[in-house]
């Protein structure tokens, strides 16, 4: 596969992955000169129509999603039995590789990655798509720290039947929800459970359940209590432990109602706010709590108790006044410029100024890359209170336009159509014996491709057959010359006659001359000998004033030398020729016939 070009556009550069049903390659889009990821279905599955349909469904599902935290799908195709998907190339590493490298992640880093993943799932769920295979292997981290969720290979619309195919368990069992493990119906809350498992792994470096076989692991998801993350990593805050507990509840109805709700709790933790969707404390009494009682046989010291109470009261009042002052007197900072920055970079810039942010919308833009800040409110330079939320509008990248098929159309018509769609058109010219000159032979990219406005589309326009040297037809008969002209696709336009010493009926002169380059469709003019004139030559005049200019005139002359045919083009003037002895002349044009005798 290395070096192969798919779709006359995508060159396979190197292999970067090997999945259960597909090979993954880094490729080069030769049209837009950018790196892409190419996923190719394994050859052993090409004959299995179920796998082929699932492979195509991956592209159809993911292509409908446009979000900064979801890998974009550019194209899907089939060529020589190869089924492939072309998608955004993410330069970085998978979350699984990062966890293996670091052992476990710092709390804020893990929560940030989980929050971005939850936003991606929330976007997919709003569009009716359940991922069904959320795991660290399918969560990519680019060089800017942005999460990109990929591999919707077993995703499907929730409006379709969501039971596992043929009862088979799909995905990775270590991240299964209990309903997936039991082979039942799955939905959005299955993705929430799997994300809870991913958070646990990021913070501990291990999956919650292990076993000798996939079945044993699946049974643990169904039967065993989920392990406490703080028992494996004491640095995990209780708020995050509660978020994980709620996400991995055995019963789906006890989990978060949506990925968006889970993303809000994760975001609130990062911003230092309370998490509204989980209880502030766990049920039951905490460890080490005992009922207060005095030492037996010794009277209670009320004076000491009063002093302690007074000290605590004054301390509480002092702290309260200080906190109230901080609430009432908030320092101001200058809003930094984050327009044009990636969301991760913008968040870091705002955090340095002790400012927060909120994404208000995502809109298409032809200049600002997808996932970068398009607009901010308030604008840069304004002074605002610390902890103020800055409203950010993200770019969803350029609007993609579907290329129309212009093959078979004239060059002008094709250019008008493509430029009307917002593309720039590059015209190349090629020789073709089949396609008439001035007609589009092919285009790149072809019909059905989606490109940003302003992209370039190349068309190849026919310039007729390949040129060849004109044959020397002099001294050949008119019949032989006509046969050669027709054989090579040329057109006999004008035959004139002159007296000469050459034999009657042979070619005296020709245009184009011998050796000149001609191509199919070109016109050829011939001058034919009438032989040596005799005293009995009779002049014949044909007035073409009544015949439309440019019309072909055929003249048949029957005289003492036999019957011959002469061809002329009407010029509106008198055409002169000769007859010998006596005979008849017949003039034909269009459907008109004029016949007369001479002398």
Features:
Phosphorylase Kinase, domain 1; Transferase(Phosphotransferase), domain 1; six-stranded antiparallel sheet
Structural description of this entry:
This protein has 599 residues and is of the alpha+beta class. It folds into 5 domains: 1-89, 2-Layer Sandwich (Phosphorylase Kinase, domain 1), CATH 3.30.200; 93-280, Orthogonal Bundle (Transferase(Phosphotransferase), domain 1), CATH 1.10.510; 332-395, Trypsin Inhibitor V, Chain A; 400-462, 2-Layer Sandwich (Trypsin Inhibitor V, Chain A), CATH 3.30.10.20; 468-598, Trypsin Inhibitor V, Chain A (2-Layer Sandwich), CATH 3.30.10.20. It contains 14 helices and 32 strands. A 6-stranded antiparallel β-sheet has the order 1-2-3-4-6-5. The protein has a 4-stranded antiparallel β-sheet with strand order 29-28-31-32, with no helix packed on it. A 3-stranded antiparallel β-sheet has the order 7-9-10. A hairpin with a 4-residue loop joins β3 and β4 (34-41). The longest helix has 27 residues, at 302-328. The two termini are 83 Å apart. Mean pLDDT is 85; it is low at 155-171 and 283-298.
In short:
The protein is an alpha+beta fold and 599 residues long. The chain is built from 14 helices and 32 strands.
Q: Please report the number of helical segments.
A: 14
- Give Rg in angstroms: 42 Å
Whole-number total of structural domains: 5
What profile does the largest beta sheet have?
Answer: 6 strands, antiparallel
> What's the level 1 CATH class of the largest domain?
Mainly Alpha
Strand order of the largest sheet: 1-2-3-4-6-5
Mean of pLDDT: 85
Regions with pLDDT < 50 over 5+ consecutive residues?
155-171, 283-298
Q: What gross morphology would you assign?
A: elongated
Structural class: alpha+beta
β-strand amount: 25-35%
- Helical residues, percent: 25-40%
How many distinct beta strands? 32
- Looking at the overall shape, the CATH architecture of the largest domain is Orthogonal Bundle
The span between the termini is: 83 Å
CATH topology of the largest domain: Transferase(Phosphotransferase), domain 1
CATH superfamily of the largest domain: Transferase(Phosphotransferase) domain 1
């Amino acid at each position: 596969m290395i070096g192969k070009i798919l779709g006359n556009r995508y060159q396979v550069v190197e292999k970067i992955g090997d999945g259960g049903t597909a090979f993954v390659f880094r490729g080069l889009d030769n049209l837009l000169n950018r790196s892409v990821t190419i996923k190719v279905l394994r050859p052993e599955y090409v004959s299995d129509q179920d796998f082929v349909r699932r492979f195509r469904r991956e592209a159809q599902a993911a292509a409908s999603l446009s979000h900064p935290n979801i890998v974009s799908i550019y194209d899907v195709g089939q060529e020589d039995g190869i089924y492939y998907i072309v998608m955004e190339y993410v330069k970085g590493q998978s979350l699984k590789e990062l966890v293996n490298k670091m052992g476990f992640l710092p709390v804020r880093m893990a929560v940030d990655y989980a929050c971005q993943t939850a936003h991606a799932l929330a976007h997919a769920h709003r569009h009716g798509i359940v991922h069904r295979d959320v795991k660290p292997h399918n969560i990519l981290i680019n060089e800017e720290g942005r999460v990109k969720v990929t591999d919707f290979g077993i995703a499907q619309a929730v409006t379709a039947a969501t039971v596992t195919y043929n009862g088979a368990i799909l995905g990775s069992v270590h991240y299964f929800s209990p309903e997936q493990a039991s082979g039942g119906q799955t939905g959005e809350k299955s993705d929430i459970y799997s994300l809870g498992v991913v958070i646990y792994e990021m913070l501990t470096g291990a999956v919650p359940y292990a076993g000798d076989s996939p079945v044993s692991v699946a049974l643990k998801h169904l039967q065993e209590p989920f392990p406490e993350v703080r028992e494996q990593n004491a640095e995990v805050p209780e708020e995050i432990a509660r978020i994980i507990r709620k996400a991995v509840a055995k019963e789906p109805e006890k989990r978060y109602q949506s990925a968006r709700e889970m993303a809000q709790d994760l975001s609130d933790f990062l911003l230092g706010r309370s998490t509204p969707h989980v209880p502030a404390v766990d049920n039951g009494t905490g460890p080490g709590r005992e009922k207060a009682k005095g030492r037996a046989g010794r009277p209670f010291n009320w004076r000491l108790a009063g002093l302690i109470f007074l000290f605590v009261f004054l301390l509480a009042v002092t702290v309260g006044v200080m906190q109230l002052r901080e609430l009432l007197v908030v320092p101001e900072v200058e809003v930094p410029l984050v327009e044009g920055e990636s969301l991760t970079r913008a968040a870091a810039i705002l955090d340095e100024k002790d400012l927060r942010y909120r994404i208000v919308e995502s809109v298409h833009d032809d200049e600002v890359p997808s996932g970068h800040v398009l607009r901010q409110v308030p604008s840069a330079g304004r002074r605002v209170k610390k902890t103020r939320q800055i409203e950010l509008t993200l770019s969803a990248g350029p609007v993609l336009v579907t290329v129309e098929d212009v093959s078979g159309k004239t060059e002008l018509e094709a250019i008008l159509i493509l430029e009307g769609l917002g593309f720039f058109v590059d015209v190349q010219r090629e020789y073709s014996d089949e396609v008439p000159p001035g007609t589009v032979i092919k285009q790149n990219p072809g019909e059905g491709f989606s490109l940003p406005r302003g992209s370039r589309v190349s068309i190849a326009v026919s310039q007729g057959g390949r040129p060849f040297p004109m044959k020397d037809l002099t001294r050949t008969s008119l019949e032989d010359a006509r046969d050669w002209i027709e054989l090579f696709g040329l057109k006999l336009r004008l035959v004139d006659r002159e007296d000469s010493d050459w034999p009657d009926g042979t070619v005296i002169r020709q245009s184009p001359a011998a050796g000149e380059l001609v191509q199919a469709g070109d016109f050829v003019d011939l001058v034919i000998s009438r032989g040596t004139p005799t005293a009995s030559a009779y002049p014949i005049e044909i007035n073409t004033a009544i015949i439309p200019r440019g019309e072909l005139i055929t003249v048949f002359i029957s005289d003492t030398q036999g019957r011959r045919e002469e061809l002329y083009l009407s010029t509106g003037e008198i055409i002169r020729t000769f007859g010998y002895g006596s005979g008849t002349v017949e003039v034909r044009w269009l459907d008109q016939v004029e016949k007369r005798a001479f002398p």
